[in-house]
Amino acid sequence: MDFIDLKTQYSRLKSSIDARIHGVLEHGQYVMGPEVVELETQLAEYVGSKHCIGVASGTDALLMALMGLDIGPGDEVITVPFTFFATAEMIALIGARPVFVDIDRSTYNMDASKLEAAITPRTKAIMPVSVYGQCADIDAINTIACRNELPVIEDAAQSFGATYKGRRSGGMTLIGATSFFPSKPLGCYGDGGALFTNDDRLATIMREIRVHGQDRRYHHPRLGLTGRLDSIQAAVLLAKLEIFPDEVAARYRLGERYATLIAEKFGMGAQARVRAPVVEQFNTCVYAQYTVEVEQREIVETRMKALGVPTAVHYPLALHMQPVFKHLGYSEGSFPLSESAARRVISLPMHPYLTDAHQVSVVDALAQAVA
Hints:
Blueprint: H1 6-27, H2 34-47, E1 51-55, H3 58-68, E2 76-79, H4 86-93, E3 97-100, E4 123-126, H5 138-147, E5 153-155, E6 163-164, E7 167-168, E8 175-179, E9 193-197, H6 200-210, H7 231-241, H8 244-266, E10 283-284, E11 290-293, H9 297-306, H10 336-344, E12 345-348, H11 356-370
Parallel strand pairs: 2-3, 2-4, 5-8
Antiparallel strand pairs: 1-9, 6-7, 6-10, 8-9, 11-12
């Protein structure tokens, strides 16, 4: 059993993907070719955003968003400690200080009720993360940000295709940043990402940053980086977009079925041996990962592997506990909900091509592993 099955997806799309890649090989514009422009147009329309800027990775997208807002040394950016390392890494890399806010224990996303207390005169942006494929409470976060005149960058690397109150992830804040890493809900065959904004000035700045800060050839009004999306990756994404709505629907159906099977097997509530993820009523989730909570995770991992079921842990150590962030002054107990989640979460196989029989096998193996 595959944890993520990209081979079946390729079989379904082989003719379209091969034709798209062949088109790039024919015209030879491997960097910033016509496929990039076509993809940006389609993605902007999908998200409901005025501008889309295709970039080299989701990590670069976060960095370029921060650069576009002129954030740097002495500034603070508020985010969460329960996320992939790149979120806080890019804040620190640009010279700013990551300031953490603990998560909502139900959704693993930023607890908006704790946000305002973290704002200081040095705060220059808020970066909520839409973890596991479900959006954070963007309206609540935007309200607090507006009251404090702060921009919001949604780290939507795991939630592309998800909705919040009928609006699509990536298009609900000043800047949305997403990833097209192969394992994402919409993934290319290498690294890739995108930025979204309705702000014309910011879009121009981020496009310049993408090409070493150029506003025209060999003229650099600002510093930038090599942040371009390759034409072949754009070609792959264009082919995958043809079936993306179907795959989003399949992910949602499979997530709901996992929840039903887990409830039948383990019950519900705080005393259940396995805690299934909670999706807010106003959200849809693309289940970039299907993540449950268990006790004695290492034992469960080992037993699942022995039963032929792959698992992964997203994420085993909260960011404030990472050695590189020791200087921030946080310690164990600073963000107890993030720390608790990091000790207990385990992700099960999840992709649009899981069969009902696969899911039954996974949940049966999980029952044996936690026994």
